Amino acid sequence: MKPLKSTITQIIIIGILLVILFTDYLNPIKEYLPILWTLTITLSILKSLKYLRGNISNELRFLTDNDTYNRIYPFIIGILLVIGGAYAIIFIEEYLIFSLLITLNGLLLIISGFLFIPNGMIWIKDKELISVSGNQKNSIEIKKLQEINLFQNRIIFIDQTQKKYNLDHLYLKMVDFVKISDFINHNLNKKIEIKTNDIKVHES
Predict the structure, then answer these.
(1) CA atoms of 143 and 195, how far apart (whole Å)
(2) Longest dimension (CA), the chain
(3) Could you tell me how far CA 112 lies from the centroid of its own chain?
(4) Ranges of CATH 2.30.29.30 domains, the chain
(5) DSSP code, position 27
(6) For a pLDDT cut of 90, what percent of the chain falls above it?
(7) CB-based contact 74:110 (threshold 8 Å)
(8) Looking at the domain that runs over 121-196, which CATH code has it been given?
(9) Could you read off the pLDDT of 97-117 as tens digits, one per residue?
(10) For position 6, what pLDDT does the model report?
(11) Residue 129's closest CA among 100, 158, 154, 153?
(12) How crowded is residue 1: how many other Cβ atoms within 10 Å of its Cβ?
């Protein structure tokens, strides 16, 4: 699943950085390697800010089953990095720049946790409606889209040939049903039948 892969990726990155730090590999630039991670986290924060400010009109986000974990893991890893980086700055004389960058990355991860956006999404690109949940991704031509069924844990897109495109592992509330319906009606220049199911389960 995506959260597990994200955690493994973070652990691998930290492991590689530590191996490089405590060996002679890539001297003398190894202290600056965490800046690549810094740039990645910064770009993620900027994207979150752009979405939260409503500046991405062709994209809509909603919760997946894994987003409870996705919401907290930046805080866990971020706090560990801040503590480890601060300890290295105070008690280890070598690799000061490396330690400062690790501490900075920890702070940026914590900030990214406060700016969390859900990982389920639909967006419009090149006359297609694209949907994503974890590793699951669907795309359907807008002109062929005929019906959308909304459930608490999935969305089913149906085209003119009755072919179904399932988007699973979601955690939708009533407010999401409304947002998805509004998004579809506002952004697609055609009439789409939208059906809602299980509407009382996650009512808010």
Answers:
(1) 19
(2) 67
(3) 10
(4) 121-196
(5) T
(6) 58
(7) yes
(8) 2.30.29.30
(9) 888 999 999 999 999 999 999
(10) 58
(11) 158
(12) 12
pLDDT of residue 201: 38
Q: Cα–Cα distance between 102 and 106 in angstroms, integer?
A: 6
CB 22 within 8 A of CB 30: no
pLDDT-derived band at 164 (thresholds 50, 70, 90) equals very high
Distances (CA, A) of 95 to 39, 86, 89, 190: 20, 12, 8, 59
Which two three-digit tokens encode residue 187?
């952004």
- Rounded to the nearest 10 degrees, the angle between the axes of helix 96-114 and helix 34-52 is 20
Q: Of the candidates 200, 159, 160, 146, which has an alpha carbon nearest to the alpha carbon of residue 177?
A: 200
How many helices, marked H, and strands, marked E, lie in the chain?
Answer: 5, 8
Cβ–Cβ < 8 Å for 140, 165: yes
Predicted confidence (pLDDT) per residue in 40-64, tens digit: 899 999 999 999 999 998 999 999 9
What pLDDT does 1 receive? 47
